[in-house]
Write a structure and sequence with these properties.
The chain is α/β, with parallel strands linked by helices. The chain has 2 domains: 243 residues, TIM Barrel, CATH 3.20.20.70; 73 residues, Orthogonal Bundle (Non-ribosomal Peptide Synthetase Peptidyl Carrier Protein, Chain A). Helices cover 49% and strands 15% of the residues. The strands form 2 sheets. Strands 3, 4, 5, 6, 7, 8, 9, 10 and 11 form a 9-stranded parallel β-sheet that branches. Helix 6 runs parallel beside helix 7 and helix 11 runs antiparallel to helix 12. The radius of gyration is 20 Å and the shape is globular.
Length: 326
């Protein structure tokens, strides 16, 4: 059993915060396959304190979700503290501070990965948030700003000293964005540096990757990002391999389509038919990866305007899969 502060997690597998993807519907799907900790999309602290409706919706946590970390970003301690108090009111079990987003417009505002350039200021941010809320506060960092400034161990140590109760690290620099390989050696070094739980992130595309990261780095949890898009089954596969050394068979096409249907229903339930349909297009493109006629099917998905049209496409895929099996 892993604990982050007073929050007990049922296993060592977490899902990364991903803008445009880890909304309430997808988080519920991931948890249905065992995921021990899910994160919201990153949320602007400024937008939160102005109580913008769309922003509040991103921060809202469902009663169906155990163990949710709400991730906020900003550059001012007071603003971050106020935003943290608000997300706790909305149901956050954990407040996570984003110190890793590499997007230029975020960095130009002194937010996200820009905080890696000023570790002391980043620590002040942690102190302000930790003093503002009663739930655990965590941070998500990168390796550093660039190859000449790898300072994740320093940032992690200062954050833990300031009150962070877990450190998640994506061991690429801001300069790398998402290119190249994640340097897992840096996860190992951060784990040696701090006494709080460390969450390793980067290049986990299989259950074997998840187990290998834990074995190599000693991290307490693994955080799966792009690997779970269209593949929430990776959560249960990783849990099985980490806990029991058992490799589960890959999900059958029928199970993939059943998960996609469930996801579609949840998206429309939480966001309405129109928006739910639009947002499911990108998810379904991931779910059908590897299916016969996937390229032409993606075109049809992107032209769909109603849940019924998407449901029809999924039904046709299921019929084709059954014919191939027979």
């Amino acid at each position: 059993m892993v604990k982050i502060g007073n929050v007990e997690l049922k296993n060592r597998v977490a899902a990364a915060p991903m803008a445009g993807y880890t909304d309430k519907a997808f988080r519920i799907i991931l948890q249905s396959f065992g995921c021990g900790l899910v994160y919201t999309e990153m949320i602007s602290a400024k937008a939160l304190i102005y109580r913008q409706e769309k922003t509040l919706a991103i921060a809202d946590v469902s009663d169906e979700e155990p163990s949710v970390a709400v991730q906020i970003f900003g550059s001012e301690p007071d603003t971050m503290a106020a935003a943290a108090r608000l997300v706790v009111e909305l149901g956050a079990d954990i407040v996570d501070i984003n110190m890793g987003c590499p997007i230029p417009k975020i960095v130009r505002s002194g937010e996200g990965a820009a905080l890696m350039r000023d570790p002391e200021w980043a620590a002040e941010m942690v102190t302000a948030v930790a003093e503002a809320v009663a739930v655990p506060v965590t941070v998500k960092i990168r390796a550093g700003w660039d190859a000449q400034n790898i300072n994740c161990c320093q940032v992690a140590a200062l954050a833990a000293e300031a009150g962070a109760e877990a450190i998640a690290i994506h061991p690429r620099t801001r300069e790398q964005l998402y290119s190249g390989r994640a340097d897992w050696e840096l996860i190992r070094q951060v784990k040696e540096q701090v006494s709080v739980p460390v969450i390793g992130n980067g290049d986990i595309l299989s259950a074997a990757d998840a187990r290998q990261m834990i074995d190599y780095t000693g991290c307490d949890l693994v955080m799966i990002g792009r690997g779970c898009l269209g593949n929430p089954f990776l959560m249960r596969e990783a849990i099985s391999y980490i806990e029991h050394g058992t490799i589960l068979p890959p999900a059958a096409p029928s199970e993939k389509l059943a998960a996609a249907r469930h996801h579609l229903k949840l998206a429309c339930r939480f966001k309405g038919a129109d928006r739910g349909t639009r947002e499911m297009r990108k998810h379904l493109a991931w779910y059908i990866k590897g299916f016969p006629y996937a390229a032409s099917t993606r075109v049809r998905i992107n032209q769909a305007h109603t849940p019924q049209e998407l449901e029809t496409i999924l039904q046709e895929l299921e019929e084709m899969a059954q014919q191939e099996d027979s």
